[in-house]
C-alpha cells in the first residue's frame, strides 16, 4: 500500500489506519480479544501498517492488545496513540506517555496526540501552552516522533500550533459527517497538517448493513450517535440507496466506496476499525479504488443530503 507523508514530519503512514477503539471494549459489545488480535495482524499483512489507539480505550487495554498483536513486528508499523483530556498538566502528559510506552512495549511512539481539548468531559482546564510544552519535550527526548491533536476546532488547532509543530488533526469525518470541511480543513491544507478521519464509515452506517428498524444492544455507543436518531437515520437510508448503484458500478461494497471517496479528500487519511480479519481485508481494498471525477461529485452531493441537516455541534454523540 502506497504511503503518505504525515504533515511535515519524517513519518510515512498508510492512507488507511487500523483503528482500535473497539479493542478497549468499553462502549462496544461482542468484541473478542482473539478476533481483534487477528484483525490487527491482518491489517499489517494487508499493508495497513499504521495503527491508531489511545490510553482511554479500556484504560490501556487497547494499547496492550496492539502490543500483543504486533510486538514482534514493531519495526514494520507506525504507532499512533493519544493522551486523554484528564491528563493535560505537564507532569500528567509525561506520565501518560510513559504508561503508553509500557503498554505498547516500545521505547518510542510515532505519533502522540492530544485526544480532546482541555476541559472536555468535565476535566480540569489546563492552558494549551503547558500541555504542548510537555509534548515538545517528549519529542526532544525521542519518546515521540510527531505531535497531533484530536477533536480540536480550527481555533484550538491554531492556538496549539503557536507552541509547537502539529502534524495531524484527528476529527470525526465521513461522507455523512463533514463539520471539519468548513472549520479546520482549510487551515490544515494551508499548513500541511494531515487529517486522520475517524468514524469514516459513520460507525458502520455507511456499510449499509443496518436496516430501517435497527436496534443496538445495550451498551453500544452507537445508540447515542446522532446519525442513528430517527430524523437523520431516514435520510441516511435514502442516501445509502442512492450510493448503492455507484458501488455496483465499481464492483465494490458501500463501505469501500465511502472510504475511497474520503481518502480522496484533501490531506485526508482514514482510521477504519474492524472486529475481525475479514473486515480489515475488505477495508484495505478501498485504497486501490480510483473514482471518476463525475462519480466523486455525485457521491459528494448524496453525502450532503444527510450532512447538511445536522447541527453545528462537531461531537457525533449525544452524551448524558
Explain this structure.
The model has no long low-confidence stretch (mean pLDDT 94). This protein has helices at 33-45, 61-70, 90-104, 128-140, 154-161, 179-182, 185-190, 230-250, 254-263, 277-285, 293-307, and strands at residues 4-5, 12-13, 16-19, 50-52, 78-83, 109-114, 144-150, 168-170, 194-198, 268-273. The protein has 11 helices and 10 strands. It has a single domain, classed as NADP-dependent oxidoreductase domain (TIM Barrel, Alpha-Beta Barrel). The strands form 2 sheets. It has an 8-stranded parallel barrel with strand order 3-4-5-6-7-8-9-10, surrounded by 5 helices. It has 320 residues and is of the alpha/beta class. Helix 3 (90-104) crosses helix 4 (128-140) and helix 8 packs antiparallel against helix 11 (293-307).
Helix/strand layout:
Layout: E1 4-5, E2 12-13, E3 16-19, H1 33-45, E4 50-52, H2 61-70, E5 78-83, H3 90-104, E6 109-114, H4 128-140, E7 144-150, H5 154-161, E8 168-170, H6 179-182, H7 185-190, E9 194-198, H8 230-250, H9 254-263, E10 268-273, H10 277-285, H11 293-307
Parallel strand pairs: 3-4, 3-10, 4-5, 5-6, 6-7, 7-8, 8-9, 9-10
Antiparallel strand pairs: 1-2
Helix pairs in contact: 1-2, 1-10, 3-4, 8-11
Amino acid at each position: 500500500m502506497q504511503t503518505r507523508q504525515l504533515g511535515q514530519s519524517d513519518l510515512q503512514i498508510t492512507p488507511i489506519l487500523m483503528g482500535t477503539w473497539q479493542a478497549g471494549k468499553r462502549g462496544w459489545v461482542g468484541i473478542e480479544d482473539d478476533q481483534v488480535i487477528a484483525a490487527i495482524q491482518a491489517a499489517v499483512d494487508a499493508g495497513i501498517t499504521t495503527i491508531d489507539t489511545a490510553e482511554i480505550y479500556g484504560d490501556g487495554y487497547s494499547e496492550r492488545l496492539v502490543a500483543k498483536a504486533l510486538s514482534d513486528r514493531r519495526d514494520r508499523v507506525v504507532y499512533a496513540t493519544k493522551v486523554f483530556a484528564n491528563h493535560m498538566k505537564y507532569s500528567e502528559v509525561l506520565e501518560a506517555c510513559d504508561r503508553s510506552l509500557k503498554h505498547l512495549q516500545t521505547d518510542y511512539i510515532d505519533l502522540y496526540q492530544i485526544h480532546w481539548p482541555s476541559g472536555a468531559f468535565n476535566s480540569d482546564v489546563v492552558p494549551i501552552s503547558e500541555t504542548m510544552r510537555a509534548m515538545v519535550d517528549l519529542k526532544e527526548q525521542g519518546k515521540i516522533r510527531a505531535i497531533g491533536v484530536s477533536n480540536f476546532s480550527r481555533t484550538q488547532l491554531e492556538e496549539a500550533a503557536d507552541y509547537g509543530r502539529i502534524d495531524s488533526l484527528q476529527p470525526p469525518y465521513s461522507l455523512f459527517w463533514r463539520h471539519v470541511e468548513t472549520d479546520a480543513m482549510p487551515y490544515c491544507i494551508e499548513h500541511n497538517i494531515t487529517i486522520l478521519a475517524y468514524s469514516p464509515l459513520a460507525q458502520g452506517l455507511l456499510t449499509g448493513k443496518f436496516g430501517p428498524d435497527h436496534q443496538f444492544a445495550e451498551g453500544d455507543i452507537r445508540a447515542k450517535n446522532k446519525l442513528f436518531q430517527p430524523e437523520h437515520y431516514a435520510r441516511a437510508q435514502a442516501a445509502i440507496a442512492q450510493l448503492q448503484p455507484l458501488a455496483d458500478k465499481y464492483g465494490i461494497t458501500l463501505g469501500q466506496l465511502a472510504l475511497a471517496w474520503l481518502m480522496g479528500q484533501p490531506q485526508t487519511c482514514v482510521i477504519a476499525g474492524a472486529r475481525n480479519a475479514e473486515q480489515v481485508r475488505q477495508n484495505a481494498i478501498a485504497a486501490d479504488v480510483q473514482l471518476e471525477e463525475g462519480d466523486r461529485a455525485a457521491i459528494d452531493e448524496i453525502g450532503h443530503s444527510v450532512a447538511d441537516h445536522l447541527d453545528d455541534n462537531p461531537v457525533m454523540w449525544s452524551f448524558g
